Amino acid sequence: MTSSVYPPDESVPAAAADDVEFISQIHVNTATELAPTGQRGIDVDYLRRYARALEDGGFDYTLLPYGSASADSLTLAGAVGQLTERLKVVVAVRPNVAFPLVVAQQLATIDQLNRGRTVVHLISGGNDAEQARQGDYLPKAQRYARTREFLQLLRRAWTETAPFDVAGEFFRFDGFGPGFPTFGGGALPISIGGQSDEAFQVGGELADVFSFWGEPLSEIRQQIDRIDGIAQAAGRADRPRFWVTFRPIVAPTDALAWEKAHGYIERIGQTYRSGAFFAKGLATPDAPQNVGSQRALAFAERSERYDRALWTPTAASTGGTGASTALVGSYETVAAAILDYIDLGASLVSIRGYDTLNDLVDYGRYVLPLVRQELAHRAATGRRGTLQADHPGGFAEPELAGAGR
What we know:
Order of helices and strands: EHEHEHEHHEEEHEHEEHHEEHEHEH
Radius of gyration: 21 Å
CATH topology: TIM Barrel
CATH class: Alpha Beta
Strand content: 15-25%
Structural class: alpha/beta
Number of strands: 14
Distance between the termini: 6 Å
Helix content: 40-55%
Strand order of the largest sheet: 1-2-3-4-7-8-9-14
Shape: globular
Number of domains: 1
CATH architecture: Alpha-Beta Barrel
Largest sheet: 8 strands, parallel, barrel
């Protein structure tokens, strides 16, 4: 285990993290990986409460995820936009389930209704069984080529001022346009994620945002550099923003956070083994197809802990399904760990808990204010505060001390 600790008052560029924003994920009912109640529908009162908690907690965005057995992300985004005043929606869309010009129209409508608070996250698909559930049998190697075409058509639908024709590899139409406009009249921000070579190429060349699951700092640094290199080679004047996702397990002290974390593991594992939360046949712990899950399991096999607070047994317990690596520690420790990733260039930080609503409230009360306080200090002084300095108990987990893991 290595630390990423900075001495207090180390100089930093004053504007290095001015644009840092926070994301979490919406939940439509009380079922969690810790307590899979079996509830699958939308509890409207709970959804309203959850959306309000996101906004009250200071989050900037909420992800509306997409799955073949989940609530429709576009419809849900429209509802969340009306339940909130400031929160932006990140709408997950799979290019296999809808025609790009129709999705462009739907997203622009949502963006008009919520007055410019819409982002789209394109999911190319990393699991053949999940894709096949909705009739998509395109080989994985071709999915990012389809995503590239889909992304380009979204932007054209939002920005072309005269009708146009397309005869592409995956989509064909005649005389479309102009399309229904977004609130601001331009293209909406588009996010891409993934760990395959194809994902990096499409994301580096075209995406406004590139999304990573939580990995060790050294790995995230390498991936950011790779995306930057692809963007530069493509002749981009800008570069994508970087979005990194964690599942923090927090408490007032490090010792209490570790006690909570160790109590979670068997419960999470049992949930995934039973298929009580994630459909059987789609979680593939023995041989996941997507590179992100393969990497998550490899990191977990190599070490339980990395850097200041990254903890991998949660990823192992889920079979690498989705973003599942944790940051474990006190509010101060986890805030410092988030800042370590911000220092690498992540300006969008997604945090969502295993105890969903309770964790969300804790993040908003205790973690986000610490990160923002440090960023404000840097902006005002051009120097680091003390949050990332080594502090008593900062790496405390007595049972692991000296264990070489």
